[in-house]
Amino acid sequence: MSEHLDTRTLGELVLDRAPWPEADPRLAHVEGCAVCGKELAALRRVARAVRTATAADLPIAPPERVWHAIVHRLADPRA
Ligand SMILES: [Zn+2]
Questions:
Q1: Which end of the chain is more exposed for a tag (fewer CB within 10 A), N or C?
Q2: pTM exceeds 0.90
Q3: What is the dihedral of CA 4, 5, 10, 12, to 10 degrees?
Q4: Nearest CA to 40 among 12, 20, 17?
Q5: CA atoms of 1 and 71, how far apart (whole Å)
Q6: What is the CA(33)–ligand 1 centre distance, in A?
Q7: What spacing in Å lies between the alpha carbon of 58 and ligand 1's midpoint?
Q8: Do residues 32 and 4 make contact, with C-beta atoms less than 8 angstroms apart?
Q9: Residue 76 has what DSSP assignment?
Q10: Ligand 1 centre from 56 Cα, in Å?
Q11: What spacing in Å lies between the alpha carbon of 42 and ligand 1's midpoint?
Q12: What are the DSSP calls for 16-53, one per residue?
């Protein structure tokens, strides 16, 4: 595999939406490609920041239903 992975595919890897078998050539590409590795690391930082964010991190609190939907979605990305 020589083409870089797109952001959506890397995002799925970060969110564990599409568990990839170890033999998947995309994993080998990410591990050996500086470009994809850098983007994957950035996406992981964003995901970690979102997962650990609290209402206190926001300049204003979102409506309760919005915050509930975000928490629900992060708890179960397949939802
Ligand atoms: Zn790449």
A1: C
A2: no
A3: -170
A4: 12
A5: 36
A6: 5
A7: 34
A8: no
A9: -
A10: 37
A11: 14
A12: TSSPPPTT-HHHHHHHH-HHHHHHHHHHHHHHHHHHH-
Token digits for 32?
């050996």
Token match 């300049």: residue?
Answer: 59
Closest CA to 10 of 27, 32, 34: 27
Per-residue pLDDT tens digits of the chain, which is 79 residues long: 669 999 998 988 888 766 788 888 888 999 999 999 999 999 999 999 888 888 888 788 778 999 888 888 888 867 6
Question: How far apart are the C-alpha atoms of 14 and 51, rounded to whole Å?
Answer: 12
For residue 58, which amino acid is it? L
Cα 65 to middle of ligand 1, angstroms: 38
